[in-house]
Amino acid sequence: MGSVVNASRAVLRTATEEHPSVVYESFVLGKRDIYVKAAFLKLGSHEDAREVANVALFKIFKHWDDALASESTAAFGMKILRNEIADTLRKRDRRPCSPAGLAFEPTVRPFAGMANEDIDQVAIRMELHQAIGRLPARQRECVTQHYLLGYDVADVADALGLSDSTVRTHLASGCRALAKALDVPDDDFADEKGPSS
Fold first, then answer.
1. What is the distance in angstroms between the CA of the first residue and the CA of the last residue of the chain?
2. 95 Cβ partners below 8 Å, 6+ apart?
3. Which of 42, 143, 32 is nearest to 83 (CA)?
4. Cα-based angle 145, 71, 52 (whole degrees, multiple of 5)
5. Helices (H), 92-115
6. How far, in Å, CA of 168 to CA of 153, rounded?
7. Which of 31, 106, 147, 189 has its CA 20 to 30 A from that of 67?
8. What's the gap between Cα 157 and its chain centre?
9. CA 58, CA 151: separation in Å to the nearest integer?
10. Residues 73/65, Cβ–Cβ less than 8 Å
11. In sequence order, which residues have a C-beta less than 8 Å from that of residue 126 and are 6 or more positions away?
């Protein structure tokens, strides 16, 4: 694994010296949507999320050499994004939005006319999102990126600068904590080893 990482860094550095914008553009294409989704979960506004993602990507560009020299370019970028989200919230004197209401934006409709089963599902989903918000930070980040944003374990690990096995451990621990918080059996969330992808 270490030789693969070193080889990929060598390729990135070589490509960067010859065509610096190509590597950065590739990074932006791969990360922009992820950054917007992650910012939206905290800010609650698509417009704010796009703005924060763009500012973060610009800051990454300004420090591109440092990003390439870092242990993980993805983790370097995610740290800048998290700092930009925090700065934006601080400027607006706001706390991060609870993901409870955010996951429903495209599908919310008035309760009048909804079947009781649908109303029950909304309540369950809100309870789940509130429980996710109470998880420790690393578990919450792993659970949010894997289950809510749909990224596989390798992408979550890359974004957070962790190993795949550490992400799986955080996911399994998070699922056990959620099962306990929601008073349901552990196996309703994931098996003991956590999700495999």
1. 18
2. 89
3. 42
4. 45
5. 99-102
6. 7
7. 147
8. 10
9. 24
10. no
11. 100, 101, 104
**Residue 152 and residue 159 in contact, taking contact as beta carbons nearer than 8 Å:** no
**pLDDT score at 14:** 43
Both tokens of residue 148?
């809510």
CB atoms within 10 A of CB 4: 8
- What is the number of residues in the chain? 197
Crossing angle for the helix pair 46-62 and 20-43, nearest 10 degrees?
150
Q: Is 41 left (phi over 0), alpha (psi -120 to 50) or beta?
A: alpha
Proportion of the chain above pLDDT 90, given as a percent: 20
Neighbours of 22 (CB within 10 A): 11
Give per-residue burial for 154-180: e unless 16+ CB within 10 Å, then b.
ebbbbbbbbeeebbbbbbbbbbbbbbe
Q: Which residues contact 109 (CB under 8 A, 6 or more apart)?
A: none
Confidence band (pLDDT; 50, 70, 90) for 96?
low
Q: Assign 170 a pLDDT band (cuts: 50, 70, 90).
A: very high
Report the half-sphere exposure of 30 (CA within 13 A, side-chain side): 14
Count of beta carbons in the 10 Å neighbourhood of residue 49? 21
Q: Are the C-beta atoms of 151 and 164 separated by less than 8 Å?
A: no
Share of the chain above pLDDT 70, in %: 69
